[in-house]
Specification:
The chain contains 17 helices and 21 strands. By secondary structure, it is an alpha/beta fold. The strands form 6 sheets. The protein has a 7-stranded mixed sheet with strand order 6-5-15-16-17-14-18, covered by helices on one side. Helix 3 packs parallel to helix 17 and helix 4 packs across helix 10. The chain is globular and about 70 Å long.
């Protein structure tokens, strides 16, 4: 095979879906000694994929991680009944990179129950029938709105002030109804093109108003908007998010059968050296012939190149030499991350049998949404309340003990049958996690055009990966996409490659 640049080699693989899978299984190539040394900062999904791809190309790779565990925002909470995921939990069937990684490391994927009963067939438990059975085979969730409890199947008659279009849509699907049916972005890269920049300066709230959303609908959509609030997000970012989610659809999602923690452990097991945990990076210096990374414990690591997968709020705290250009420094400092806070409750008795109502809830309170957690037999053993945006910010203002007490009391206020039937036993907050700073990035009005182009620009010998640098892929697939780009950049700088075979 003719010699070609590393960038060309990787790009040729990425042009086809088969190439995406091949990128995860590239055979070792012959490199001139000594091996190029690359340091990967962060042992989350993007970092582990970077390390695997670099090792596949014959690089000497060291992975360091600040947390005492690997996985980043992938973590299975084994100590909570039902073994819920603290972060990413499901994969779209279009996630070619993620599915290839799972196959490579032997991680089994399956369709999740999604907290709604059995994995196949209609849900026949934990429900009271209403007027309109929902698409999942039951009457749907319980909606708590302005002090009233309403079955999703009765929602169409429950709330005045909604338009005819809005009345038949449950609150959790209202945003998607507007964003997907009227989305002007034709593809996953359109949000980066100048012809769509006009949407960047418009807030999501203003955009929805222009589409005809009523004041009541805007209040409903502002409960759990996947950002800190409709007025605080760019409509271009929201359209991009909606376009990506729609493109990722196509069949039921998938989950890791053994949990995400088991998956990342399998990935790490493929590496030549296990990631080094407990290494909190404080400074990165890039010189003419090497890069040096310094940690809070006094240790340091040097390499030919480095790839940082650290989230932007973490990058903003580091001492970087050379200093990033003004636009990149502003991106690190100003791009916000969506707050997501969860409370987990052990179920002491089946309260749904007492009030005859669905377990799953959508509420207008700070705890926002409530889902059942099930054991292997399908029995409900716990609940999780999931708040993003304003609700999460309110919960984050409380200490852990006060958050438990508030969550229990708020659930009992909304649904009296839960009083004494559930006990808050755990909580997670990605905003208060110093290694994350939030769940995933969002862009405020005007930031896509001003800040996005600078996010992933190499800084000396330092390159950047992570979901926040992805262009097309959503969630975990976006993290994997970013790893491919960053590895391609590093390999192109190292020199030419002669692929084996």
């Amino acid at each position: 095979m003719a010699t070609q640049t590393r960038r060309a080699f990787l790009e040729s693989l990425a042009r086809t879906s088969a190439g995406v899978a091949a990128l995860c299984a590239v055979p070792m190539t012959l490199l001139a000694a000594p091996k190029p040394r690359v340091l990967v900062i962060g042992a989350g999904l993007a970092g582990l994929r970077c390390a695997l791809l670099l090792e596949d190309q014959g690089c000497e790779v060291t992975v360091i991680e600040g947390r005492p565990r690997i996985g980043g925002r992938l973590e299975t909470l084994a100590h909570v009944p039902g073994r819920p995921e603290a972060g990413g939990s499901v994969l779209g069937r279009s996630y070619a990179r993620m599915r290839a990684m799972a196959e490579r490391c032997g991680a089994e994927l399956a369709t999740p129950a999604m907290g709604h009963g059995p994995k196949t067939g209609p849900c026949k438990s934990c429900h009271a029938q209403g007027k309109v059975p929902d698409r999942r085979g039951g009457p749907g969730q319980l909606i708590a709105w302005r002090g009233e409890l309403v079955l999703e199947s009765n929602w169409i008659d429950a709330v005045p002030g909604l338009s005819e279009r809005e009345r038949g849509v449950s609150p959790d699907r209202l945003m998607a109804t507007y964003m997907q049916t009227a989305n002007p972005l034709p593809d996953s890269e359109a949000w980066t093109r100048p012809e769509f920049a006009k949407f960047d300066d418009t807030s999501l709230e203003a955009y929805l108003k222009d589409l005809g959303a009523t004041p009541t609908a805007l209040q409903l959509m502002d409960v759990a908007p996947n950002c800190p609030g409709l007025a605080r997000a760019s409509s271009l970012w929201a359209l991009r998010d909606g376009q990506r989610r729609a493109a990722a659809a196509g069949g039921l999602p998938l989950e890791f059968v053994g949990g995400s923690t088991a998956f990342v452990e399998k990935l790490a097991g493929l590496l030549g050296r296990r990631p080094i945990t407990g290494k909190v990076v404080t400074a990165i210096g890039s010189g003419p012939d090497r890069i040096v990374v310094r940690c809070a414990d006094g240790s340091s690591y040097d390499a030919d190149y480095a790839i940082s997968t650290l989230p932007l709020p973490v990058l903003a705290r580091l001492r970087l030499d050379p200093a990033p250009p003004a636009a990149q420094a502003a991106a690190f400092r100003e791009i916000g991350y969506t707050p997501i806070t969860r409370v987990y409750y052990a179920v002491r008795r089946p309260f749904w049998e007492q009030d005859g109502l669905p377990v799953t809830m959508w509420t207008d309170s700070a705890i926002e949404r409530v889902f059942p957690l099930r054991d292997d037999s399908g029995a409900v053993v716990a609940l999780v309340s999931h708040a993003d945006g304003p609700g999460a910010e309110a919960l984050d203002a409380l200490s852990e003990r006060r958050r438990y007490r508030y969550a229990e009391q708020e659930l009992a206020r909304l649904r009296p049958a839960t009083r004494g039937a559930v006990e808050a036993v755990a909580t997670t907050s990605w905003t208060t996690d110093r290694f994350a700073g939030g769940a995933y990035p969002y862009y405020a009005p005007g930031q896509v055009g001003r800040l996005r182009p600078a996010v992933a620009l190499p800084l000396g010998r330092l390159h950047f990966a992570g979901e926040h640098t992805a262009v097309t892929g959503p969630g975990m697939e976006g993290a994997a996409e970013s790893a491919d780009r960053a590895v391609g950049e590093v390999l192109a700088r190292i020199g030419s490659v002669q692929p084996s075979g």
